[in-house]
């Protein structure tokens, strides 16, 4: 079909073409009008074109009747018609994702779309239509994030990608223009990227609180450890002071130095093992023995029961020093009250000590010491007999061993007792 100006219009399955015939000898001009040029009918029908008396061109298409008025081409300028061609999430069309319901039916987005923090890569494709100058269409865009953002330079680019968007509110806007002066109204698509839970203020506050709590626990545990260490040091110092005091008291009593230092060294070794409870127990026993001896030494007579208790405390300390190499037993008379019989203090301790040192220490098996008190009536008076018995090697062999170890040594305590 020819229009009033002599141009030939030819329809096809993809639109219509205008063929211009300039002056003779000049090349002709072909211009196509399809979907992107505003011819929405697309496929034309055969023999379905006509020009009316007003110069309007009418085309029958598969999508209906289309009208084109060549005389209005330069009468008034309009901005291009702009629309979204596609919106994609990680290069996948939004309509094929779980967020398809947020499409508005015209290629854009409905208000209120919120995406998780890891769904933050969006692509926008857009197209504009200007029948008068389809080749001159240029685009500009901007992404608003709560503050005004400058427009991008004009270009023919018809798609924009945004990767790694931070959490926040966004509004994508695009405009089109054919002459750089008259722009279409901004086409907008608003959406939001949610922050991950660890980026929220409440999580940060909770994390800070937990961190402070952990630091406080570490500091508290450190303080407790230091206090326990200091307490242990003080306890060891106190026990060492007690040992020094006991040593002074024992020396004042002129007891056998070997026994005193052996007992103190054994307790000191126990302190070194860290067994504070056992060390305190042995210190208490040694203190009790020293106090008993000191108290008895100031008296000329003590009861038989007090002497037996002192011997029991002494043998217990010796048993501890000898690492339980022997057992012992003390038998009091049954036919008289031991509280009524009085004897000189420290009378029997040297004999018991000899039984330990000379009769028990060298044994390869467990030793046994028995101290037996018996009261016998002789004439009109009573006689208290005390027997110190051990299962050692015997006095003669013990004396020989003693001479081998310490030639010329004699038990002064026994001699004094005699």
In sequence order, what are the helices and strands, one letter per element?
Answer: EEEEEEEEEEEEEEHHHEHEEHEEHH
CATH architectural grouping of the largest domain: Sandwich
> What structural category do the secondary elements indicate?
alpha+beta
Beta strand count:
19
- CATH level-4 homologous superfamily of the largest domain: Immunoglobulins
Determine and state the CATH class of the largest domain.
Mainly Beta
Distance N to C terminus: 158 Å
What's the story with the biggest beta sheet?
4 strands, antiparallel
**Count of structural domains:** 4
Range of strand content: 25-35%
Cα shape: rod-shaped
Helix content: 25-40%
CATH topology of the largest domain: Immunoglobulin-like
Q: Which regions are unreliable across 5 or more consecutive residues at pLDDT < 50?
A: 411-418
**Count of DSSP helices?**
7
Question: In words, what does this structure look like?
Answer:
There is one protein chain. The chain has four domains: 8-72, no CATH class; 81-197, Immunoglobulins (Immunoglobulin-like, Sandwich); 200-298, no CATH class; 323-418, no CATH class. It has helices at residues 201-253, 257-272, 276-297, 304-321, 349-360, 395-405, 412-417, and strands spanning 8-12, 15-20, 29-33, 44-51, 57-61, 64-68, 81-89, 92-93, 114-115, 122-129, 138-144, 159-162, 168-177, 187-193, 302-303, 326-331, 342-343, 367-378, 381-390. A hairpin with a 2-residue loop joins strand 5 (57-61) and strand 6 (64-68). It is 33% helix and 28% strand. The longest helix has 53 residues, at 201-253. Helix 2 runs antiparallel to helix 3 and helix 2 (257-272) packs across helix 4. It is rod-shaped and about 175 Å long. It is α+β, with helices and mostly antiparallel strands and 418 residues long. Mean pLDDT is 83; it is low at 411-418.
